[in-house]
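Q&A FORM
Asked by: J.P.
Topic: structure of 2'-deoxymugineic-acid 2'-dioxygenase-like

PROVIDED:
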Amino acid sequence: MELLSSGVALQTVPEKYIFPAHKRPAKELVDSSVALPVIDLRGGRLQGDGRDEIVREIVDAGKQFGFFQVVNHGVPEQLIEHMVGVSEELFNMPVEEKAKYYSDDPSIICRLGSSTPYDQNGIRYWRDYLKLVCYPVEEFMHLWPQKPDKFREVLAKYIVEVRELADKLLRLIAEGLGLEQDYFSGGFSGGQTQMNVNYYPPCPDPSLTLGLLPHCDRHLITLLVQGTAARGLQAKFEGKWIPVEPIRNAFVVNFGHQLEIITNGVLRSVEHRAVTNTSVARLSIASLIMPKTDCLIAPAKSLINEHNPPKYKSFTFEEFLSAYNAAAANREGVLEYFKIEE
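REPLIED BY: S.T.
REPLY: Here is the structure written out as tokens.
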């Protein structure tokens, strides 16, 4: 078992985590003057005069950034804090307890691991993770970690609230694009909801390594909580990386490849990555809203015409996952499989 959260504080970065000089984070420009939009959902009560404004803000953010943050979203703040708390407890458990959940087998529904499947030439990423399928709750709850003691109870409540928020956001997005409000329900968002709980321990030299590779998400939409005050998540904007500021109990929302393809490029799926820091461990909890594997993905018919022809051919989500893995999560590499030649 190989975990960074083993309880041993490393004084130097081991060779296998050191990236070639041209791939290190310091070699790319970071622009701290640009901030993602922060959208107030008014407690999740999305009716009345303010609804049109919220819809416009979400669609504008999707067109410009592919990312935004939401506050006053209706998910209880105490529940978010409990979810962050039990997740931190899990990574701080003794090694022998964590060993029960460790596996390198990607087919296992709930597993603890390290780095990513997309290691570059054997170079590892500075990240431990818990990956699990978490929705429908009754189908998968028995497979979740039994420790910490409250983990299953808290996660069961948390993911139901997050799913409800995701459904609200998808209805607002559909409305803003002139689609039927339930356009993204059914197969587009009806697959198994996955969760990545990411843990980035303090790194002796963050200039040498990365916590997570630059990538776009393979699914429909991601709702992510940043659990500490430490910066780490960065999104690509106009050729530079911009830090995604941690906002207490906010959700970072980003669009996956499927949403870009379904909207025929109107909304953007944007590269993002995680960098490390020397002082504190950073935790994030990403909930991944997935299509069903047999769902047919294609640009929405009402968004294409003779002046805006389809940019992508149709495919099943299962076919997309195969291409995504073959391209090692590279944005342009995976989209090349499905682009229609002009």
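FOLLOW-UP: The chain has one domain: 15-336.
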